[in-house]
Amino acid sequence: MEKWRRSERVVIITKYLLEKPNTLFSLNFFAELFQSAKSSISEDISIIRDVFREFTLGKVETLAGAGGGVIYSPLVGPREKDEFLQEIAEKLSDPSRILPGGYLYMTDIIFDARLAQKVGEIFAQHFIELEPEFVVTIETKGIPLALMTAKALNLPLVIIRDGSRVTEGSAVSLNYVTGSSRNIRTMSLARRALPTESRVVIIDDFMKAGGTAKGMVELLAEFKAEVLGIGVLVDTELPEQKLVPNYYSLLKLSKVDEIERKIMLHPHC
Amino acid sequence: MEKWRRSERVVIITKYLLEKPNTLFSLNFFAELFQSAKSSISEDISIIRDVFREFTLGKVETLAGAGGGVIYSPLVGPREKDEFLQEIAEKLSDPSRILPGGYLYMTDIIFDARLAQKVGEIFAQHFIELEPEFVVTIETKGIPLALMTAKALNLPLVIIRDGSRVTEGSAVSLNYVTGSSRNIRTMSLARRALPTESRVVIIDDFMKAGGTAKGMVELLAEFKAEVLGIGVLVDTELPEQKLVPNYYSLLKLSKVDEIERKIMLHPHC
């Protein structure tokens, strides 16, 4: 007789899969955990896979063979994605978010762990096919989105520092010009933070002219990294010509009107 | 007949609970989702509760009555916590982490999403009884741990900025002296980031003399906030007398010996 009932086993397996997205668990692992036959575990996993598919809660894949097992990948269905981005767009369009100088206050949204997690899952789903090895961002506001992307992809996160800090050993620094305000700034990345010739995706919160993104690409070139893609939560309609050729943005900011107190911001189609 | 089998329902309910820790779900919510009787849902939840307890995977509580429902709180059992902290301590004790000046390279550990999540769950479990309303940290390295603590507690995260930035509107700034290197620095917090008289916990990665923590407490006093507690991943044995009276630390750094290439770092008992 099985020690644990099916309804108990599926709860525990679900918990393990969700805690470690994009991580392979062997059937043996669960068979030993429950002192159960592999055939029973295999049926448990089929149930989880089918019901996740039915409710669009993520993808559960089984891999056959000796190196086989089960992997969970977060999945944000098209309808859920649309509704979610619409919800963020509405929150960000609140006129009380207009700051002096025509800036938009986004910090509370970016640092909301649940929203950040969902954004991270959307980025993960978009970039996973490119098989990145690292997620890269620049401090500060890119961090929550990049951390959640890294979590969903089961990858390490690498932080480019704004300025140059002493606590990370030898580092490569780059002076760059911010695309919009034309300020000269410095960014740096510790040598030990990223092996050379890594495959990376860049995640950030905001892109205007793309000067920061361009700087990151150039800094990463010093590490011989291959930049597979760039994901940002919000980009601006203007300037139309960005300093980086390709990127994936979720929301487009068309206008912040300080006088009329109006924000135009919408999900990308 | 029920549309969904028990083994299917418990998978979905588990997913909902884990995605939103410390959030109340009514039984009606699940009854409607599955077009199922509330009595069936109630039994489903009992199964989840019991098996979570059995495997020390978290606390599932049911609240009776009209406002009732079910809540999941992450729980890191004493043995799991010990093993986890021992694992981090060993990683951090690798002599290759010694940086010039006797600093310790911790960034990759702090920015590992899974380790950060576990640390966040340990902090959440420690501070939840104090009923905080906000988690507060200072950029940059405190962010992942604080974000994961906020997620586990289902609370907003507030970031104190290092320096003063233009993109967040009116802010309160404070000059403070770092406890160890005696540098004068500025930290600032946007007025809109935190309502006055909030109940907060402070989370950070590292504490040496406690100058930064003291600065945060003073800055938060300008917001009439009540600081219920301070949690740090690593504190140093010296100086013994910290600038803040009370805090909760997970790991103690006793020594970084640059010449002997030796690090002494252990979990707090």
UniProtKB/TrEMBL annotation, chains A, B:
<dbReference type="InterPro" id="IPR015265">
    <property type="entry name" value="PuR_N"/>
</dbReference>
<dbReference type="InterPro" id="IPR000836">
    <property type="entry name" value="PRTase_dom"/>
</dbReference>
<comment type="similarity">
    <text>Belongs to the purine/pyrimidine phosphoribosyltransferase family. PurR subfamily.</text>
</comment>
<dbReference type="GO" id="GO:0045892">
    <property type="term" value="P:negative regulation of DNA-templated transcription"/>
</dbReference>
<feature type="domain" description="Bacterial purine repressor N-terminal">
    <location>
        <begin position="5"/>
        <end position="74"/>
    </location>
</feature>
<dbReference type="Pfam" id="PF09182">
    <property type="entry name" value="PuR_N"/>
</dbReference>
<protein>
    <submittedName>
        <fullName>Pur operon repressor</fullName>
    </submittedName>
</protein>
<dbReference type="GO" id="GO:0003677">
    <property type="term" value="F:DNA binding"/>
</dbReference>
<comment type="subunit">
    <text>Homodimer.</text>
</comment>
<dbReference type="InterPro" id="IPR010078">
    <property type="entry name" value="PurR_Bsub"/>
</dbReference>
<keyword id="KW-0805">Transcription regulation</keyword>
<feature type="domain" description="Phosphoribosyltransferase">
    <location>
        <begin position="113"/>
        <end position="251"/>
    </location>
</feature>
<keyword id="KW-0238">DNA-binding</keyword>
<dbReference type="GO" id="GO:0045982">
    <property type="term" value="P:negative regulation of purine nucleobase metabolic process"/>
</dbReference>
<dbReference type="Pfam" id="PF00156">
    <property type="entry name" value="Pribosyltran"/>
</dbReference>
<dbReference type="InterPro" id="IPR029057">
    <property type="entry name" value="PRTase-like"/>
</dbReference>
<dbReference type="InterPro" id="IPR050118">
    <property type="entry name" value="Pur/Pyrimidine_PRTase"/>
</dbReference>
<keyword id="KW-0804">Transcription</keyword>
<dbReference type="InterPro" id="IPR036388">
    <property type="entry name" value="WH-like_DNA-bd_sf"/>
</dbReference>
<dbReference type="InterPro" id="IPR036390">
    <property type="entry name" value="WH_DNA-bd_sf"/>
</dbReference>
